[in-house]
Amino acid sequence: MSWLTLIIAGLFEIGWAIGLEYSEGFTRPIPTVGTVIALIISMLLLASAVRTLPIGTAYAVWTGIGAVGTALLGIALFDEPASISRLFFIGVIIAGIVGLDLSSATH
């Protein structure tokens, strides 16, 4: 259950990171509120997951999910570059997340 909680926390991390763009530096009230709510939920879920998962693994997976999701949504939503090298390194992050999951003693 901790891994599922961690994955959901990572998805909320993507939400608040993308929300930063939509809030335009916290100048738009509704996107700002959504961003702050997503941030709080993400942190609470991460805190819950680390009760049973190693902090180093959990934090790396959480940030990895956030980094990959935010980079992919940056490409899809904000016309950020989708170069071969960028996609390759996103794949490297995914491989690292999977590796941490597979090598976790609590898996």
Task: Describe the protein's architecture and organization.
The structure is a single chain. This protein has 107 residues and is mainly α. Helix content is 81%, strand content 0%. It contains four helices and no strands. It has helices at residues 2-23, 29-49, 55-78, 84-103. α1 packs antiparallel against α2 (29-49). The longest helix is centred in the middle third of the chain and has 24 residues, at 55-78. The radius of gyration is 15 Å and the shape is flat. The chain starts with a helix and ends with a helix. The mean pLDDT is 94.
**What class do helices, strands and sheet pairing give?**
mainly alpha
DSSP strand count: 0
Beta-strand content estimate: under 5%
Poorly predicted ranges: none
Topology:
Layout: H1 2-23, H2 29-49, H3 55-78, H4 84-103
Helix pairs in contact: 1-2, 1-3, 3-4
Summary keywords:
107 residues, flat, 4 helices, mainly alpha
Describe, in short, the structure shown:
Helices cover 81% and strands 0% of the residues. The chain is an all-alpha fold and 107 residues long.
